[in-house]
Design brief:
Oligomer: heterodimer
Low-confidence stretches of chain B: none
Radius of gyration of chain B: 39 Å
Strand content of chain B: under 5%
Order of helices and strands of chain A: HHHHHHHHH
Helix content of chain B: 40-55%
C-alpha cells in the first residue's frame, strides 16, 4: 500500500480507508499474534484489539514511521500484554509471581496452521522451545524467521538498533540450539 | 543419536518455519471489528465499578478496611482510661433519682 496516498486518505477522512487497512494487514497481524500467543482464539482477540487501536489512533497517525511498522508494533505489544495477563492469571496472582513459588511454566504444544506438512512436527517442537526464550529474543526470532522481515525493519519495529537485533538473533539461535539438543537427547 | 545427526535435526527444527504460509484469520474479521467499534463506550462510573468488582481489588479493599478498623479498635482500647475532669461529674444526688424501682423489686410484691 502506498503510504503517501494512505496518509492523504486518512487526512481526508475517507470512510473506506479503515476497511482497506484491515483487508491488507489482517493476515500479517494475525500471523504475528499467533506466533507469540500460540492460541488461535487469543490471536483472533489480539487481531481485533489491534485494529480497534488502529481505528482509534488513525487520525493521529502522521507518518513518522511506516504504517506497517506501526501496526506491527501495536500487534507485538498487544500480544505480549495478553500473554503476560494470562500468565498472571495462571500463576494465581502477583504475590506468587513476586516470590516465584511456582515452577517455570511448561509451554503448550502448538501446531502452526501455515507450517509445511513435512515440517509440522518440527515446527511444534520449535514453538515449544520458543516459548522458553526471553521476550525480546522471541519477538526478534518470530519477526525474522516466521514473518520473514529484514533486520532493518525488525529494528524499526522494536525501536532498537540493527546491531541489537543481530545480537538478539544470535542469542536466540544459541538458546534454541541448547534447548532443542536437550529436547532431542531426552526424547530419542 | 550421533552428534552430526543431532546437529542436523536441531538445524532443521530451527528452520522448520521456512517456506511456511501465513495463517489466515477467521472470516468476517472486519464485521466483528465493526461490531466491537459500535458497542457503546463505558462511562467513568461503569469503568470504576468494573475495576472495583475484580476479585483481586475487592479482596485487597476489604482487607485494607479490616486492617484500618482493627487499628482504630486497638488504639481506641488503649486510650479508654482517660479521666473525666472532676467538675463534669454529675452526682445522682442532684437529680434525687430513686435507684430502686418497685416494678423490679421482686421482694416487695404488695401493690
Amino acid at each position: 500500500m502506498n503510504q503517501p496516498e494512505l496518509l492523504a486518505r486518512i487526512e481526508n477522512r475517507d470512510p473506506t480507508v479503515f476497511k482497506d487497512i484491515v483487508t491488507h494487514w489482517q493476515a500479517m497481524v494475525y500471523n504475528t499474534a499467533l506466533s507469540i500467543v500460540h492460541f488461535v482464539e487469543d490471536a483472533e482477540d489480539v487481531t481485533q484489539e489491534v485494529f480497534i487501536e488502529v481505528y482509534e489512533k488513525l487520525e493521529g497517525f502522521r507518518g513518522a514511521s511506516q504504517l506497517q511498522t506501526w501496526i506491527y508494533r501495536i500487534t507485538i505489544n498487544k500480544a505480549l500484554d495478553l500473554e503476560k495477563k494470562k500468565k498472571r492469571q495462571k500463576h494465581g496472582g502477583l504475590l506468587r509471581q513476586i516470590f516465584n513459588t511456582t515452577p517455570a511454566e511448561e509451554p503448550v504444544n502448538f501446531n502452526h496452521p501455515g507450517a509445511v506438512l513435512d515440517n509440522k512436527e518440527k515446527a511444534a517442537v520449535l514453538f515449544k522451545a520458543l516459548g522458553r526464550l526471553p521476550e525480546k529474543q522471541r519477538v526478534a526470532f518470530a519477526l525474522h524467521k516466521i514473518e520473514g522481515l529484514p533486520q532493518q525493519e525488525i529494528a524499526a519495529i522494536m525501536e532498537i538498533s540493527v546491531a541489537a537485533v543481530e545480537s538478539l538473533m544470535t542469542r536466540a539461535r544459541a538458546a534454541l540450539k541448547n534447548l532443542l539438543e536437550d529436547y532431542y537427547q531426552q526424547n530419542s | 543419536m550421533k552428534k552430526f545427526e543431532l546437529e542436523k535435526l536441531v538445524e532443521d527444527t530451527i528452520n522448520s518455519m521456512d517456506g511456511a504460509q501465513r495463517a489466515e484469520p477467521a472470516p468476517y474479521l472486519l464485521t466483528r471489528i465493526n461490531a466491537r467499534l459500535q458497542r457503546p463506550a463505558y462511562s467513568t462510573w461503569e469503568r470504576i465499578s468494573m475495576i472495583l468488582s475484580r476479585p483481586g481489588v475487592a479482596i485487597a479493599g476489604a482487607t485494607f478496611l479490616i486492617i484500618v478498623n482493627l487499628a482504630i479498635f486497638l488504639t481506641g482500647n488503649s486510650s479508654q482510661d482517660v479521666k473525666v475532669p472532676q467538675s463534669s461529674q454529675v452526682s445522682t444526688d442532684v437529680y434525687s433519682y430513686n435507684t430502686t424501682s418497685a416494678l423490679y423489686d421482686l421482694e416487695n410484691i404488695t401493690p
